[in-house]
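User: Some background: our group keeps a shared notebook of sequences we're curious about, and every so often someone picks one and asks for a predicted structure to add to the entry. Today it's my turn. The entry only has the sequence so far, pasted here. Could you supply the structure so I can complete it?
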Amino acid sequence: MTSAAVDEHRGLGEYELFERYVGTSTPVILRGAIDHWPARRKWTRTFLRERYGDAEIELSSTETAERTVGRLRDYLALPERERAKWYLCDWNVRQQCAELLDDIVTPDGFEIDWMRHVPREERPDMLWIYIGHAGTRGPLHVDNYGTSAWLGVLRGEKLVRFVEPGDTPADELQAADVFATRRRGRAFPMRDAHLRAGDLLFVPAGCWHAAMNPTYCLSVTANFLDGANLSANRSFWLQRWHGRSILAGEIDRLARTRNAAARARLARHLSRAVDGWQAELAAEQEALEELAARLRSHGS
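Assistant: Of course. Here's the predicted structure to add to the notebook entry:
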């Protein structure tokens, strides 16, 4: 089955980005969006090896998906025949090399992140570096915690393939190889995002996707919570991490915000979050009323 292409833009305005993509949970490529990052010039293999060669990293086998721990220096020095077997995943920036945060910039249009309201003792780290040699790839998955993500390619190229799973069970999806030349089992509608150095990809919450590196690829990704994805896992955010308090606090902040652009940005996300929550409650109420009617009909 052939794949459609994910939309791509260069210089897309923040309002249009939200209305067409972030607010509608639609993937999009933003060409050249991170070309200005210092990391684009600074993070070479030599720089990472010399500065962070002793860093402990986690490697994922592209053949079995099993994970092992190693050192960055050893990974970067792998013989060519071994390079496609291991994918460096989830290298935590804040824990091991916080100074690298100075070399990246929150992308325009993604400034809202309500994860900061999650209690620090429960807040997961959501910013990672990925390094993959040519041929490395990861499994089909949905990002954790009902969050969306932005993914920026610093060097090389990356292919991210999105699938529309329909009613396919999660365990079947996780076992699917969407990059196989000849795929077995159920076929899915797919969309491809071909990323080059300097590009940024928006990955909406709840979207099944997998990544493959056609060349050596160095990328950074961050997951975030905003108005468009708050309801993606409503019970999680609104119960465990008090999403209602997040919204109440942000509405109060809206009243205090004087910068017009920041105020408009926050208002869009709050409106989307409240509308999404309200729609879900209405749908649940309708389903509940239907069940109640059936119960009454059988009980009479």
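Suggested note for the entry: The chain has two domains: 4-229, 231-299. Residues 231-299 form one domain.
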